[in-house]
Amino acid sequence: MGYPETFEGFMVRDQAEWTEFHKQEVAHLLANRFLLIDTISKFAPKKFQDRDIDIKIECCGVCGSDVHTISKGWGEAPMPLCVGHEVIGTAVKVGDKVTTVNVGDRVGVGAQIWSCLECKMCKSDNENYCPNMIDTYGAPYPDYMGGVISQGGYASHIRAHEYFTFRIPEGIPSHEAAPMLCAGLTVFSPLLRAGIGPGKKVAIVGVGGLGHFAVMFAAAMGADVTVLSHSPDKEEDAKKFGAKEFILTKDEDWSKPLAFTFDFMLNTADATHKFDLAAYMSTLAVNGEMHHVGLPDEALPPIKAQMFAPNGCKMGGSHIGSRPEMFKMLDLVKEKGLKPQIEQVSISEEGCRKAVEGVHDNSVRYRYCLVGYDKAFPNR
Q1: What is the pTM of this model?
Q2: I need a labelling partner for 77 at 20 to 30 A (CA). Which of 119, 234, 241, 245 fits?
């Protein structure tokens, strides 16, 4: 079998061996069982429906979520699994009721691939909080859609609902657009919802895959941006991305001169369990917010209610973003000519291993994108 009955991909078989990617054929990957056919990486997609789009993948960003999922950092995941939710490719088939995409369009898919589109969240442009949402990989589709587990973008193709498929503007290279579809949207949405713009003082905690997008976006939106980081070697890059100030949080009493400073703090770091949260919170202006988008394996440090009292601050978090926010982000990138720092890696067993290890070890500057799909999947 081959497309459209099955797609090919690089899959992890066992979370205990999460850096080992294999090609294997999965005839019907159901929520509770799978059948291995041979050593070719094929898997059955969901049932094709009227609003679905099949995409021949050109490239896919490598997200921290991929690593947390396959390494068991976030718990058990269905195996075998093909991760990847920062997908760019070409639409090769569209359903009869699709109105937003044509065959041949360059499109992208992020971390969400379906929602009900009927609940109050979906109808208020909050579909990313739909209680029935389906993640792009590792999530079960209901029986009427085929009963399969969703599979991601380290693959030849992906099948997505049109509402979660986005036309990519001309002028944004595919390998730069791909990481925006999760990492970019994840930081853009809370900045937008917080009303960030001229006159706002924003702190970005951490300069990594998420953080470097956050600095660029907040600066492009007109805010006065300060980076809080424990890595002194990232100061030059942080200022290149748009930060006006760089504060080294390893320094003793680093927070004291910043008391009551920031209207909004966006925490993109993956090591919050090591933070002195009271110090970070003390830098917020009255009613300021510390907002978390980094989702580490470890729990937050202990919090007391008294920590919120001195400045009336708040703490919150968010999950990716909505379709309207995706398009606003892409428009901002095109309008401002924003250029993320992306390292391209050819997709293969070794390429996938290199990428997930680099994300895990925090050695990437600042995001990987898997490319070379035509070579890896020559028969599609």
Answers
A1: 0.95
A2: 119
Q: How far apart are CA 156 and CA 8, in angstroms?
A: 5
109: β partners: 87
Across the strands, what pairs with 270? none
What is residue 7's three-state secondary structure? strand
pLDDT band at 38 (very low <50, low <70, confident <90, very high): very low
For residue 371, give Cα distances in angstroms to 15, 314, 350: 24, 41, 13
> Alpha-carbon distance 228 to 205, whole Å?
5
H/E stretch holding 315? strand 314-317
Take residue 269 and report the two structure tokens written for it: 């770091």
Q: What is the pLDDT of residues 105-156, one digit of tens each?
A: 999 999 999 999 999 999 999 999 999 999 999 999 999 999 999 999 999 9
Joined together, the tokens standing for residue 4 give 């459209």
| CA dist., res. 217 & res. 328, Å (int) | 11
Q: Do residues 64 and 187 make contact, with C-beta atoms less than 8 angstroms apart?
A: no
| Distance from the first to the final alpha carbon of the chain | 11
Give the CA-trace dihedral at 347, 185, 357, 272, to 10 degrees: 180
